[in-house]
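Batch job 17 of 40 flagged for manual review because the log was empty.
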Amino acid sequence: MFIESAPSGVERSGSIEVICGSMFSGKTEELIRRLKRASYARQKVEIFKPTVDDRYDDSNVVSHDKNTIHSTPVSKPKDIFALANNIDVVGIDEAQFFDDSLVEVCNYLANKGIRVIVAGLDMDYLGKPFGPIPGLMATAESVTKVHAICVKCGNIANHSHRISVEDTLVVVGESQEYEPLCRSCFSALFPPLDVSDGIGNKIKRELPGRPG
């Protein structure tokens, strides 16, 4: 559980909040909501996003529903150090596109008394932990996992299935490139592979990967 303001007379302590999930799950929407609430409370807020994310706007953070908030694009996490002076709340969107040094940066800011709110994909298109998000989840005071709806069966979706042909890890896109799928529908796309159980026996196991 996260607390959006400190009680009167109590010194505000720093913290890390992570909002994660698949694409189309409302991560950026929730990030914007928390940041706007902090702004309404007259807290000093600064928002950052990776320069690679220019889908809707070069500078603003924009959700799929077109809600927007001004942000500062940065190429690497350590750029945030020089831009987060005299700030109460730092927001970071699309955190999975940054390298692992983001974990160090966020912890440094939180230790300085800043509330840090991070949003990003927890898994890549192969279903594997994505970038610095696992490290942030481990060190955060609060983790909120949001879900989309599976486009195939209507169940809760936690996977971002890439439907375009690119096979590089980072492909910035939206509904033309990705669709949200549940565990069952995502796993059905990939045939079982023979893997060892560690004692010489072969077992069948579903492993994420690109369809053959």
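Reviewer: the log was empty due to a logging misconfiguration, but the result itself is present. DSSP finds four helices and 14 strands in the chain. Unflagging and moving on to job 18.
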